[in-house]
Amino acid sequence: MRGYRREVWLVLGLSLGQSAVYSIVSIVAKLTESTPLSQQTTTLNESRSVRPLLDLTYQLLGIGFALVPVALALYLLSRDGGAVPARERLGLDVPDGRRAAADAGWGAALAALIGIPGLGFYFLAQHLGVNTTVAPSGLSAYWWTVPVLVLSALQNAVLEEVVVVGFLMTRLRQVGWPLGWVIAASALLRGSYHLYQGFGGFLGNCVMGAVFAWWFHKRGRVLPLVAAHWLLDICAFVGYQLLR
Fold it and tell me: Total structural domains in the chain?
């Protein structure tokens, strides 16, 4: 059991736990600036070079290396033994077309359930002055911009749902945490690494995290959550890039 706890700290320390710490520092920095929080802008998917091909290289490297903790989490789960592979235990497998269609349908439904109220909550939080203005894309318009944003959305979805839902919930249940605490831990972690956006981003993602964690407990499949998250981020990233 102690080994499982160490695994949780290691995986989170290399991925979203680290992001949560930076996010807390970021919100403290924003709150201590002279400009009100609602008048500040948070830019996602920022450009890393004025040279297009170099920027593309940096973007792809960032996406690739961000998925290493996912591989680590699956490897650690595979060491548990048993006849069921780690991917199947988390519901990342696609055994047949019917299963794929069901996962896609659940993903679309969850995206609608979270996305539509979430957009309204974002505008409310900004109106109340507790959130920054979020710019989902800071990339210039190149031939590769939209494909990279789609890949970035997929990377976010895979990393967050596998680590924060699949891996974390599995390990916390194995060390004996009650279900309510497990769902709360997953939800609070998701909210904490979005705190850099403001308190609206924190609360909104806590709600999303609670819904996703409960769904995984009931259904035992991460893949529909990945699909839902991917759809949400594609709409935000690509929609903003095309409409700004």
Answer: 1
